[in-house]
Design a protein that fits this description.
By secondary structure, the chain is α/β, with parallel strands linked by helices. It has helices at 14-32, 44-51, 57-65, 88-98, 122-125, 165-180, 196-209, 222-231, 243-256, 294-308, 311-326, 344-360; strands at residues 2-10, 35-40, 68-73, 103-109, 129-135, 147-149, 156-158, 185-190, 216-221, 238-241, 264-268, 273-277. The protein folds into two domains: 1-106 and 260-362, Isopropylmalate Dehydrogenase, CATH 3.40.718; 119-257, 3-Layer(aba) Sandwich (Isopropylmalate Dehydrogenase). The protein contains twelve helices and twelve strands. Bound molecules: 3-isopropylmalic acid and magnesium ion. Residues 247, 251 line the site of magnesium ion (MG).
Length: 362
């Protein structure tokens, strides 16, 4: 199969981690006789620095012409004072919209080898396997009007949260379709005691759930869900939620399973899928060769599964990550300060090697 990908390394640690993900993809492609065809493009701060646009036209063109997009991270303090549309993040948000990627899947799994990396007690976190389904094109991120207006000292800032029924319905179906292949449970997270958006959300979710009689649906307010996520993470299966709540809860889930550096994501629903680690650009550690590439590598696995239906290949990557962790490999985010850790590139090399070894036995 031809794996025709656009690679968007982006900012901060983005280039370092995507490089390792590509090496692992190459190892899988070699083992299964697929051909990788890559095109690298700029996004975020890297694109702002090059052409003063966080999502240049040629980047969009390359993305829509490819079969999937692998992204590193966007965000750079250099552009903190830019107007909204000239911030690195604006490039990512526009890309999600251009690609019609309304469904953001963020698995949060506690790897057996990493049980002791969680700040929670091992008995609480052991066996955690959550799939966060975050609506990605609605809510406060995209709602209009939005502005900061008025005279100095008396300015007013406005953002708008909007959801229409079709947008709620389509993300709900994604969550339920996933639940059917998992443990048949969906928790819808909202703030229906306060927000109209959430009241409509809950109504539509309840209506859609009737088409999935085998799936148990429950509801929680987001504040209470945040508490339960640290008290009993094992109890969660699929979490269905709107854009901003999903952004927050997915970082929290990363903390629960030991490190945000482990979390991968798939943004799907449109014609071309977008795959990126959940972590940001981490400018404080960029260029030091210590970032955890596993979020990016596991995003590459999601890319194979969702954009190419190559589930077997995806499992080889995921198993290789598990094997390397079992052997004790840890990047610095996974060890107490001062203890031995491996570099970004060494971690990537070990996963690629584990893929080569396991696939040679297939
Ligand atoms: C994420 C990030 C982005 C988001 C930022 C970089 C725009 O935090 O993917 O979770 O808020 O969606
Ligand atoms: Mg986030």
């Amino acid at each position: 199969m031809l794996l025709n990908l656009t690679i968007l390394p982006g900012d901060g640690i983005g280039p370092e981690v995507t490089e390792q993900a590509v090496l692992v993809l190459q190892a899988v492609a070699d083992a299964f006789g697929h051909r990788l065809q890559l095109q690298h493009k700029n996004i975020g701060g890297a694109a702002l620095a090059a052409v003063n646009d966080p999502l240049p036209a040629d980047t969009i063109q390359a993305c829509v012409a490819s079969s999937a997009v692998l992204l590193g991270a966007v965000g750079s303090p250099a552009f903190d004072h830019n107007p909204g549309h000239l911030r690195p993040e604006a490039g990512l948000l526009r890309l999600r919209r251009e690609l019609g990627a309304y469904a953001n899947l963020r698995p949060a799994i506690c790897f057996p080898a990493l049980e002791d990396c969680s700040p929670l007690r091992v008995d609480l976190v052991r066996g955690t396997d959550i799939m966060i389904v975050r609506e990605l094109l609605g809510g406060l991120y995209f709602g209009e009007p939005r502005s900061i207006q008025g005279a100095p000292r008396s300015r007013v800032a406005t953002n708008t949260m909007t959801y229409d029924e079709p947008a709620i319905e389509r993300i709900t179906r994604i969550a339920f379709d996933l639940a059917v292949k998992r443990r048949n449970r969906v928790l819808s997270v909202d703030k229906a005691n306060v927000l109209e958006c959430s009241r409509l959300w809950r109504e539509v979710v309840i209506r859609c759930a009737k088409d999935y009689p085998g799936v148990q649906l429950s509801h929680m307010y987001v504040d209470s869900a945040a508490m339960s996520l640290v008290q009993r993470p094992k109890d969660f299966d699929v979490i269905l939620t709107e854009n901003m709540f999903g952004d927050i809860l997915s970082d929290q889930a990363g903390g629960v399973v030991g490190s945000l550096g482990l979390l991968a994501s798939a943004s799907i629903g449109g014609p071309v899928g977008l795959y990126e680690p959940v972590h940001g650009s981490a400018p404080d550690i960029a260029g030091k060769g210590i970032a955890n590439p596993l979020g990016a590598i596991l995003s590459a696995a999601l890319l194979l599964r969702h954009s190419f239906r190559l589930a077997r290949e995806a499992v080889y990557i995921e198993s290789a990550v598990g094997a390397v962790l079992n052997q004790g490999s840890r990047t610095s985010d996974l060890v107490p300060a001062g203890q031995h850790s491996v570099s970004t590139s060494e971690m990537g090399r070990r996963v690629a090697e584990a893929v080569r070894i396991s696939t040679s036995e297939k």
